[in-house]
Every structure is written in C-alpha cells, then in structure tokens.
Amino acid sequence: MPVPLCQHCQERKGNRPRGLCTRCYRTLDIRVQYPTKKEWTRGRADETEAELDAMIEKWLRPENLPPWWADAVARQQEIDQPVEIRIVHDNRRR
Ligand SMILES: [Zn+2]
Predict the structure, then answer these.
(1) How far apart are CA 15 and CA 35, in angstroms?
(2) pLDDT higher than threshold 80 for residue 88
(3) pTM (2 decimals)?
(4) What span, in angstroms and rounded, lies between the C-alpha atoms of 39 and 18?
(5) From the CA of 56, how far away is ligand 1's center (Å)?
(6) Ligand 1 center from residue 24 Cα (angstroms)
(7) Quick one: DSSP state of residue 21?
(8) What is the mean pLDDT of the chain?
(9) Spacing, Cα 13 to ligand 1 middle (Å)
(10) Residue 52 Cα to ligand 1 middle (Å)
(11) Residue 53's pLDDT is what?
(12) Are 18 and 35 in contact (CB under 8 A)?
C-alpha cells in the first residue's frame, strides 16, 4: 500500500502517525488538529456514560426485554449482583 500524502501539507509522505509527514507531526499546532483514532475513541468513551444509561433504561422497558431476561433476573439472587450492573461492566470491557 503506498503511503498517502501528508494530511496537512499534501506535499510530503504522511508516514508519521495521524497521516502527517515528519515535519508536520513535529509541529504541535498542526499535530493537535489531526487527532488519532485512538483519541477519538477515548473522547467517545466519556460521552458514552450518559448514552449507556439511556440505553439501559430503554432496554429495561418490558417490551424491549430479551427472552433470556426473566431467567437472568431469577438468577440475580444467586449471584448477588443486579443484572443491569453486569451488563454495564461487559460493555466497558470491550
Ligand atoms: Zn506535512
């Protein structure tokens, strides 16, 4: 795969992270304009807290509950942890 041109100057090869050339990458003012995908994901993770709560609330409506829900609620007593908390943890681990 050929190296695409620098996202910023479009003159040199963008062989540094964020699709920038070495010179643009070294310039902090330029570098901050091109966040990495990783940083985007991290930004989303904070937003997701509220989204996740809203999503769980939606799931917990009786018409949206999956078929296994009744079983899971029944088992909840045995494992001594609310089912919805386990779902939140599963999501965060991904
Ligand atoms: Zn450049």
Answers:
(1) 15
(2) no
(3) 0.39
(4) 11
(5) 44
(6) 4
(7) -
(8) 75
(9) 7
(10) 38
(11) 75
(12) yes
